[in-house]
Design brief:
- The complex is a heterodimer of chains A (435) and B (226).
- By secondary structure, chain A is α+β, with helices and mostly antiparallel strands.
- Chain A has 15 helices and ten strands.
- In chain A, strands 1, 2, 3, 4, 5, 6, 7, 8, 9 and 10 form a ten-stranded mixed β-sheet that branches.
- In chain A, helix 3 packs across helix 13 and helix 3 runs antiparallel to helix 14.
- The two termini of chain A are 34 Å apart.
- Chain B is an alpha/beta fold.
- Chain B contains six helices and ten strands.
- The longest helix of chain B has 16 residues.
- In chain B, helix 5 runs parallel beside helix 6.
- In chain B, strands 6-7-8-3-9-10 form a six-stranded mixed β-sheet, with helices on both faces.
- The chains are: A alpha+beta (435), B alpha/beta (226).
- At the A-B interface, helix 1, helix 2, helix 12 and helix 15 of A face helix 2 and helix 4 of B.
- The complex binds adenosine-5'-triphosphate and magnesium ion.
- The site of adenosine-5'-triphosphate has 12 residues of chain B, from strand 2 and helix 1.
Amino acid sequence: MQQKERSSSNGDIHGPHTSDSILHVARWKLRVERFRVPPSFRLLLSDVLGGLRAQPGRLLLAMGTMATGVATLTVLFGILAGLDRRAEQLVAEFGADTIALTPTAGSGPAEQTLAANVRDVLRRNLNGATVSAIRRHPRVPIGAKRDVDVIAGDHNLAPARAWPLVAGRNFDPLDIQHAAHVCLLTRALADELQVGVQQFIGLPHMPLRVVGIIAPSGDNDANMDPRLASGARFVVVPESLPPLWSQSDTPPSPGADALFIKTGSPATVAAMLDRARQLLHGGGRAAAWTWTTPDTLLGGIRKLRGTISLSAGAIAGLCLLLGGATLTGLMLARIQERIPEIGLRRSLGASRADIAALCVVEALLVSVGAALLGIATPLCALATLDPGRLPVSVVLNATVLLVPVFVVAGTALLASLWPALVAARISPYEALRND
Amino acid sequence: MTPPVLHLANVGKSYPTPAGPVEVLRAVNLQVHAAEFVVITGPSGSGKTTLLSIAGLLDAPSTGTVAFAGKALPQNDERALRHVRSHHIGMIFQRFHLLEHRSVVENVMFRYRYLPHDRADVRRRALALLDEFGLADTADRPARVLSAGERQRVAIARAVVLPPMLLIADEPTGNLDAASADRVMACFRSLHRQGITVMLVTHNLSLCAYATRHLRCVDRGLAEAA
Ligand SMILES: Nc1ncnc2c1ncn2[C@@H]1O[C@H](COP(=O)(O)OP(=O)(O)OP(=O)(O)O)[C@@H](O)[C@H]1O
Ligand SMILES: [Mg+2]
C-alpha cells in the first residue's frame, strides 16, 4: 500500500536535487522509490513485539486472565467431546438399531417374567426384525480367576445383539431344540481359560463344548442397565438347558430377564418401537415393560451435555465480556502512554490505518499468546494425569483446541476496535507538543 | 526561478475553546527558500509551535493555504500530506521523542519505518551519521540510557538520515545545557552547510548567530527581526 501510494503521488514535488545549491547532499539521497517493498507485516509485528517487550508485567497480567478463560473453556469443550465419545461407545455396545425390553421393577411377580409368548408375538409380527430373549445367571464359578455371567438364549441372540463371531459357529435351532451341551465364549474369557472351539469348559454339574467364540464390543457402562450390558467375560448357553449351575435358591421362572429386538437399521427403531408397543398393549402388558432404545439410553448423557454446554456458553460469554473489557482498558492505557510515539509515527508518514493496525495486531498477538498458554495448560495436565482417575473423560481434539483460540481472537479483535479508533484519531500535532 | 520550499499564504489558526475560538495566528505570510536557515523567536504562547506544526503538515491551518515546493497542499488530501511528511520533512522536537526501548541506531532507522527501504543500506547510513555526530559508540545502546544532549543528536540524525527538503526543529536546545546545546547547534550548522533548509524555533537569541534569516513571532503574526 505504501508502495502504491508513493508511486501515485510521487514526482509532483521535487527533491533537493532540483536545487543546485544542495546537490552535494546527493551522496545521502536514497532513492526510496525503487527499493523492494519490505514485508510490511514483519515490520508491524516487530513494532508490536517491541512495544510489548517494554511492558512485560502488564502483558503477563492480561495474558494470564485470558489464558485462564481459555483453559476453562478448553476443559469444558474437552468434557463435551468426552461425553460425545462416551455416547458413541454406549450406542455401539447396545446396538444403534436395537430395542430392549426389561420387566419393570415393582410390577407383579407374574409380570416380572417374560411370558414365552411375548417373544413369539413379537417375532411373528415384526417383519425384518430379529427378536431374542436372555436370561442372565450371575456369578457362576467356572474355575477361572473370577466368576462369570452365564447368559441363556437361543440361536437368535448373537445376531440380535450383533456379537461378531470370531471362531467356530453360532448356535443352530437344533442346539436349542435338543438342549445340546454347547456354549459360546467371549474372546476375553476364551483367552483367559485358554480354551478353543471344540474344547470343553466345566460349569457346575455340567461340562459344555465350546462351539463359537464371539467378540462383543464389551465395555460395561454405569449408564446402562446391567441387564442390558454385556461384559467382556461371559458364557452363552442354550436357553433350553436346565440351569443346574445356577447359584440362586429360587427356582428359575419361565421367561427372561430381557428381550432384544434388532430392527436391522437405526432408522426403523422408532416405527418398530411403536409397533411392538401396540402388539403388547393389545395384551395389556405394555406397562409392565421398560423400553430401552439408543435414544433413551443417551437421555442422561444428553441432559449432562446440555448442562455443560450451557455452562460452557456462560463461561465463554463471561470470558468474552471480562477478557474484552480488560483488554480494552489495557489498550486504552497503553495508548495514553504511547501518544508521543503515535505522533512520531504519524509525522514519519504513518496513516491512521497504520496506527489502528498497530493496536489490533497487538491485541490479536496478546490474545493468541494467551490462547496458546490456555490450551497448553490442560494439555500438559492431561498428559501427566492418569485418565482413569478423572471423574469424566476429557477428549482434546483439534476442534476442542481451536474453538477457544478463535473465540478469544474474536474477542480481542472486537475489544481492540475502540482503542484502535482512539489511537487513529490522535492528532499528531497534539501528540508531539512539548507540554 | 525555483519555488520556495515552503509557502504559507494568509495562514490563520484559531483553536476552539469553551470560551469561544482563540486566534493564535492571523494572516501569516511566509516563504522559506532552499538553503535558508530561518530562526523564529518570540514570547511564550505567541504561536511558534503552532506555526511549525502547520509548516510541518502536522496540523491544518484554519484559513489560508500551504504550498510545498510549489505544490499547493489541500488539507483534505491526506495522501499528499502524508507523502510530503514522510519523504521531504524532517522534524525535531524539544522532547526528542525517541523510542526508549530501541537501540540508538534503530531509532535513527525508524525514519524509514513507513517508507520502502533496504534495511542494510539504511543501517549503514544511520551508522555513518551517528559517527558524524559523535555518537558512534552509542549505536547499540538503548536510547533510554543516553544523556539529553546525546538524545537530541540522535533525534537530529533520525530527522536527516533521509535528507529532507525542510528540517523543522521546535526548541531543539530547550532541554539542554549550554555545552550540549552547542554540540546540537553544530550539527544544525553542518547540515545547513550541506544544503539542508532549516526552520528552527528557539528562546535562545544567541542561536540567531547561525541563522540566515531571523523572524519574530508577535501579535499573532511574523515579523522580520533586524
Ligand atoms: N489545542 C489547543 N487548544 C487551545 N489552545 C491552544 C491549543 N494549542 C495551542 N493553544 C494556544 O495557542 C497559543 C500558542 O501556542 P503555541 O504552543 O504555539 O505557543 P509557543 O509560541 O510555541 O509557546 P512556547 O514558546 O511556550 O512553546 C497558546 O496560547 C496556547 O495556549
Ligand atoms: Mg512551543
